[in-house]
Amino acid sequence: NTPIASNLVEYAREALFTNAAAVQTAEGAAKPESAITFELKYAPVATLAQWIPVSRQLLDDAPAIQGYVNTRLMYGLKLKEEDELLNGTGTGQDLSGLIANSTSFDTSFTTTATDTFLDVLSHAITQVQLSYFEPTAIVLHPKDWERVKLIKTTGTASSGQYIFADPHSVETPSIWGLNVVVTQSMGESQFLVGAFDMAAMVWDRNNATIE
């Protein structure tokens, strides 16, 4: 997250990168010139908020209810923030989310009609890598992650064993070496593979507060 004080973010978005880096052997030779083309973008800072009425009598009679309500309000706010950061369209009051700014999956990477969901995710990882970025995570809907977890071996003496998970232990969600972020904010049967540390940024004007 990057702090910001204004109500409008002016930022430069990379449009094209020309990498001309080369080995120089001749002394005094001119160094090759690389280039990065930027386009100027603007994004308004949106306020995510909600409120709930609670009578003074209830708060006076049951102080614990205040902590409960505060926790629920903050949780709901974080759910909306997550949804906006992922699915925001950038129009109206919506944030400009990750999906709206991402490159669509190139179906030409699909090699056969029998490619599985795991195959498609591998193709998506390769697509990111061919863009000279190294992917850091995959975002999936809980039902899709469950389908992956329940994949079992077949046709061997060990048929029926889970491949991705051990029911006796807690596994860190991961596919093809990448962490999996499991959230209902991602549509079912959809996915997002990204280099989130390099290709995305969040500007935050204020931390969430409760009054």
Helix content: 25-40%
Helix and strand run: EEEHHHEHEEEHE
Structural class: alpha/beta
Overall shape: it is flat
Number of helices: 5
How much is the radius of gyration in Å?
Answer: 23 Å
Compute the number of strand runs.
8
As residue ranges, the low-confidence spans are none
Please summarize the sheet with the most strands. Answer: 4 strands, mixed
State mean pLDDT (0 to 100 scale).
85
Widest beta sheet: strand line-up: 5-6-4-7
Strand content: 15-25%
Structural features, described:
By secondary structure, the protein is of the alpha/beta class. It has helices spanning 56-61, 64-87, 117-129, 142-149, 196-199; strands at 2-3, 8-18, 35-44, 137-140, 174-175, 178-182, 192-194, 203-204. It is built from five helices and eight strands. The mean pLDDT is 85.
Please outline what is shown here.
The chain is an alpha/beta fold and 211 residues long. The protein has helices spanning 56-61, 64-87, 117-129, 142-149, 196-199; strands at 2-3, 8-18, 35-44, 137-140, 174-175, 178-182, 192-194, 203-204.
Topology at a glance:
Blueprint: E1 2-3, E2 8-18, E3 35-44, H1 56-61, H2 64-87, H3 117-129, E4 137-140, H4 142-149, E5 174-175, E6 178-182, E7 192-194, H5 196-199, E8 203-204
Parallel strand pairs: 1-8, 4-6
Antiparallel strand pairs: 2-3, 4-7, 5-6
